Amino acid sequence: MLDHLVYATPDLGGTVAALERRLGVRPAEGGRHLGLGTRNYLLGLGGRRYLEIVGPDPEQPGPDGPRWFLIDELAGPRLVSWCVRPADLDATVAEARRQGHDPGEPRAMSRRTTDGDLLEWRLTMPSRDPLTPFLIDWGTTVHPADRGLPEVPLRSLRGRHPEPGRARALLRALGAELEVERGDAPALVARLAGDVVLS
Questions:
Q1: Measured between alpha carbons, how far is 86 from 133 in angstroms, rounded to an integer?
Q2: Contact between residue 144 and residue 42 where contact means Cβ atoms under 8 Å apart
Q3: Is the pTM of the predicted complex or chain greater than 0.85?
């Protein structure tokens, strides 16, 4: 089940302002990922799904390594990844490994909201391939989409890949569903209400 989409940018403030102009809704400030050099803004996509807009946090020192989601490599905003929320994270990881794909060991993470609430979750590491979702388990934490986010409904999500069959096999190993068509390079394409396309 889709949990969230990741829209990464080298200029978080500029991208949030641009999205507000396009969508007519201002994303809500999420919080800082301490030690990773990033912060995020969130926008509900309908149901328990959301868009994460993530970029560098100028109020943090630079991280020891590259920022997640290819942020240090981007020339502009891009839909770089998506996240799936399985019913059982550990069982899904084990089944994917049985099918020949290792999504990595789930890692515990946390951040504080602007109100000071602590959010805690476990996830597998994001891939460089935008079509390969990472997996998340929110545990007992209130889901971000249940916290009254401003909302723009997601109309569709699809992928493009030079080898659609290979991409579909990997998705099946993770228990994820995504329409995949042939394209020159791996890419995600999301269509939001108002016919706004993010890719």
A1: 11
A2: yes
A3: yes
Contact 110, 140 (CB under 8 A): no
**Residue 26 identity:** R
pLDDT at 62: 84
H-run or E-run covering 22:
helix 12-23
Q: How far from 56 is each of 72, 113, 115, CA to CA, in Å?
A: 9, 17, 21
Rounded to whole angstroms, how far apart are CA atoms 199 and 190?
6
Quick one: which of 114, 110, 107 has its CA closest to 41?
Answer: 114
Scanning the structure block, which residue is given the tokens 């590491």?
125
Alpha-carbon distance of 33 to 126, in angstroms, equals: 15
pLDDT at 196 over 90: yes
